[in-house]
């Protein structure tokens, strides 16, 4: 007998060992042997060579999870078994390979594996693809485990929270039975709903802010609320934290403010809508984090989006405290429409560039226009002679505003980019120039830079002269723009109540901020 025939006979003997006499089906026999864990190695190896699903599954379960052997066997099984496809999707998700993860989730869904429907829906949810997430949940097979049912139920409520459908949330929470509440997902959902006041909006009304410059921040879903908490934690480690304090972040349905969002434009909202929750807010300022849009501050309201960093967050808060951008503003920005009639910010002044008269007189006149005048040393020049100017009839000296280069390390008057490239209606450059206190770039020009110690000292000594009015001023302005003077005056009074200094009270009551 040849050697190869002998091997085949020996293999068959091992495969058929213990087989009862009579007719038999080899596939069924091996499947039963493996399923009942009565097989030997030769039987398992032979069954694997034949792609026997029971053998493949047995070997897959014995393999080290996520090993190359595990992956190879999973891909073979995933042709017909949804669980294998689902497990592969989880593996690729942990490896941060989203396209592969999505493909295997979709394979598991085609094989009607219920957990895959919820997992991919959750994946879409985290990407803010809410419609795709909702659509997938509608296709979830009726037959599934209690674990899958709870996960789907919780996701449906989270989707409703994200789209601002509070009535749906109220209805579903009423159905939230004890079984769901006792799951990890159920407890987390209920804790978040309570913590962020999803179904209540008056818990903060009796809280007294811990400082005058208080800020209430909102977001429209749990992930963004948690990100706000991270931003606040980071801000509280900064030098500016001594000047502003935060109330606990709160949920706000995305429908409430009617905001126009878009990554290429600044966030704009119908600020009249703040009046619907104003009684539940006991802070001077409010802010909201939205899924997208350009960060900005409009009087007492701060807007940021979910992609904004801590540096952006800090920069925007400085606007609430009275600082102006040191990078070029929009060409039609009101700040640069004309030279200032009075000081308006902690760090920037908009003045003419050229002066005539005695140095002492001009210096005294300019210093009256500067909010940081008291921080400039008497020995620091703020004017430079213009020697090439044709003499006028009066022969008065001509000066150009600005501290010389050799004094760049001191507080003085230095050119700012704030009003660069400003044009009037005729397309001609406006004769207005912005000046700042420091020669070096600051956080008001580049977000990533530190907030200067000098600017901290400005705040400490200025008693917040250039602080933004409270958010009630925004509500008043919205009413005024719609011609409702009665409501506008009511909200101006609410805003003025936050002021201690009579000049600021009067300015706000007149709507001249």
Describe this structure in words.
With 513 residues, the chain is an alpha/beta fold. It is 43% helix and 9% strand. The protein contains 20 helices and 14 strands. It has helices at 3-15, 26-35, 41-49, 53-62, 68-77, 82-94, 98-110, 114-126, 130-138, 146-163, 166-174, 178-181, 184-195, 222-235, 310-320, 359-369, 453-462, 472-481, 485-496, 502-509, and strands at residues 214-219, 245-246, 250-251, 259-260, 268-269, 285-290, 296-298, 301-305, 348-351, 354-356, 383-385, 398-401, 414-415, 433-436. Strands 1, 2, 3, 6, 7 and 8 form a six-stranded mixed beta sheet that branches. α2 packs parallel to α4 (53-62), α5 (68-77) crosses α6 and α8 (114-126) packs parallel to α10 (146-163). The model is unreliable at 1-14 (pLDDT under 50).
Q: What are the main properties of this structure?
A:
alpha/beta, 6-stranded mixed β-sheet, 3-stranded antiparallel β-sheet
